[in-house]
Amino acid sequence: MDRELDVFSNYRSITNKIKKRFLKKPNFNEASEQFATLTRVLKHQECAQYAGFCCLAKARCENTLGNCVAEAEALLEAARLFFQAEKVNIDAKCAALDEHLPEAIHCYNQAVKGYSKEGRHAQASIVALELAQNLLSIGRADEAHNHFVRAAEMQRKTSIMDSLCTLRKAAYCQFYLNNLPGALTHLSEVMEMISSMVAQDANSLTYTLQSIRQSVEITFVFIMLLLKSSPMELSNEHSKVMETYTWENEEENNRVLPEDLFLLIQSVVMATNAKDVDTLTYLQVELYPQLDTVQCELFQKIIHETNE
Predict the structure, then answer these.
(1) Contact 105/131 with Cβ under 8 angstroms?
(2) pLDDT tens digits for range 101-122
(3) 152 Cβ contact list (under 8 Å, min separation 6)
């Protein structure tokens, strides 16, 4: 921070202007602009946490003026600044005991409420999603999961495609937490939503939706192999998916994956059931270019557990 910049004096000076005084009306518009200016100066000085507090002060001014959207925008900027300050501590391996994270989460949540109150559901869901992704980026998968679920619920009002992608991220959080049944629940929900959409309108199965459907089914199958559930323990929907990958099932109408990829996943299922580690290792090389990071980790777990 610049030594010539007296942050606290400037902050107090602006705050004093909006205190109630006899026969003098506080000028909240002017104060809001001055807090915004001080925020920009502090950001330039790389003092994210102090800039965040100035944004909070600006948000309070906008609240007093009844500018709900401007208040939400100020809260969102404050949330980002507090998270930035927290990230600096984490990267520096500073034992700060979540010094700025609670404030960041609170500001994100308040911004979501503000946008929702004004009927701006798309913006509210984007903010909720940003919070979830930020939490996941610092290893807070448990907290991130809850916010991914909330964001997915909001996105159903504006974009079902975004909602499906966000639910898949919630499933991946459960995987990071070693909660495979929880991950399976979210994946099943995604598959059911897509099936319902296709049943209502076959033309809704766009390339993007088909890609999501295929990726989710691969993850679903890998998790089912790790859970090692007996046929008697499976629900009807789960049984139908797994039956698709048996040699006896030759109904191509039920297939979600393209033929080459289907045969590879089918081979993984059969090799796992036969505890054929050599075949699984060969299939791992063949499949890796077509799998995402979580699917690669799941496949590695399958090989490890089959080899035990």
Answers:
(1) yes
(2) 999 999 999 999 999 999 999 9
(3) 163, 166, 167, 170
Write down the pTM of the prediction. 0.88
The residues pairing with 21 across neighbouring beta strands, listed in sequence order, are: 24
User: What are the extents of the domains in the chain?
Assistant: 25-99, 120-212, 257-307
d(CA 179, CA 227): 10
DSSP codes joined into one string, 170-219: HHHHHHHTT-HHHHHHHHHHHHHHHHHHHHH-GGG--HHHHHHHHHHHHH
Rounded to whole angstroms, how far apart are CA atoms 278 and 219?
Answer: 21
Nearest to 158, CA basis, from 119, 197, 191: 119
Q: What tens digit of pLDDT does each residue of 208-235 get?
A: 899 999 999 999 999 999 987 655 556 6
In this structure, whether the domain defined by 120-212 belongs to CATH 1.25.40 is answered with yes
